Amino acid sequence: MPELPEVENYRRRFESCALRRRIAGVEVTDARILHETTERALREGLAGARFVSTRRHGKHLFAEATSGAWLYLHFGMTGDLYCGADPPRFSRFVVRFVKGELLAFEDMRLFGRVGLLSDPDSFVARKRLGLDPLDESFGRTRFEERLTRRRGSIKALLMNQAVIAGLGNLWVDEILFQSGIDPRARVERLSGPSRRRIFDAMRRILRLAIARQESDRPMPPHYLIENRTAGAACPRCGAGNLRRTVIAGRTTYFCPVHQLSSRA
To answer: Do residues 103 and 54 both lie within one domain?
Structure first.
């Protein structure tokens, strides 16, 4: 499922493909992809306009048009963006440009959404989304505030989109793996140093993931994401064997040796 790093690279792909190009028209090939809008509203809001800027908040992508409307994209489990001359097989929404090329939103399983908004800030507030972890205003102090008076496992908290927007199963596992915190550790028992390690790892790992994905390179070999196999040797400490469990309904991998609850 696309998480923050993937959506950030979709945002960059959108900009390279679609900014400042006049829109000839739009097509909706499956209305089930629509979010609180209609094909007619999309046509009227975008045809003849140009996209002038983009914005990402967590896993949500917004593109501003000169008409004043904002295109909204959420990628669900299998959503992707395609730029080219002909739409791919599972295109659900297509923006055609005056000079012939197109931008297609493809989604095989139809869990993604396409909409039209007047204001992304109102959308974020209405959906009660938490802070974006790469927002410049989101520092250690605000991260500590997010954890204050919270209870439950640290993994479940980090995946809660109302607390922090954009993190999902894979990257939360990686953040806790690299910071040495057991994903089952209770938030209310985390020490100050443990919380700071999590925050620092979160910012570092997300930025690295964005850069690696943009250049089509795998993450470093000591990262969990390339080694999610129960029983495999831990790629970070080498002393433990990876374990698999379920937390907040999600399959979770961790090392029982260097990810210690006692250190939390």
So the answer is: yes
